Amino acid sequence: MTAKEILKELKPLGSDSYKKVIFNHGVKEPCFGVKISELQKIQKRIKKDYQLALDLYDTGNYDAMYLAGLIADDARMTKQDLQRWVTQAYCRPLCGATVSWVAAGSPHGWEVGLEWIGSKVPLIAAAGWATLGSLMSIKEDAALDLVELKRLLERVQKAIHQAPDPVRHQMNSFIIAVGGYVTSLTEAAIRAGEKIGPVMVDMGNTSCQVPFAPDYIRKVQKRGTVGKKRKSAKC
Q: How many Cα atoms within 13 Å fall on the side-chain side of residue 93?
């Protein structure tokens, strides 16, 4: 299938009511307002398609861009592909989910994550922290740079309250990811979260709340799922 054919398929699946919901998260036109559950049905049919994913993302249509992330062949994504995607990720769902999930599944996740967190563009920096957090969820601890992760915990601790809202949100999520997925750093993440304290983020006209990282990590501990990895960062 082509990107043009996919757009024709997506258009009648959209709804104004869902558009209103996602517009509160920074999404803008062009957008049909297709629910993720409908996009996942198309994902199941297509599975992976590297070129189609690139073409869909380049349409600039939000629904197509989100679908692109779902069907992307992460292993084939080049660093240049990822850089182009992150610069076009104009809202939190794209930078915090679509781009970061694909980047984490690519061979370049750690590299681009570290590069992006230093960006002066808030959404790119947020994508970097989201990418690093996603890596924690899918990479075995032995494949992670634990020393660098400790440094990143310290970096978040020092900078989070001065960071822009999108970055602050993803920094908090990064603390949770380290604590929930990296067994040897769980207590370090809890301590960092305690020193940071509650994190305030303007989530706009949404019902979303920012969890207190130590409490969230302790819930994971109580469930007995600390260190349990996922097959894919995508959901």
A: 20
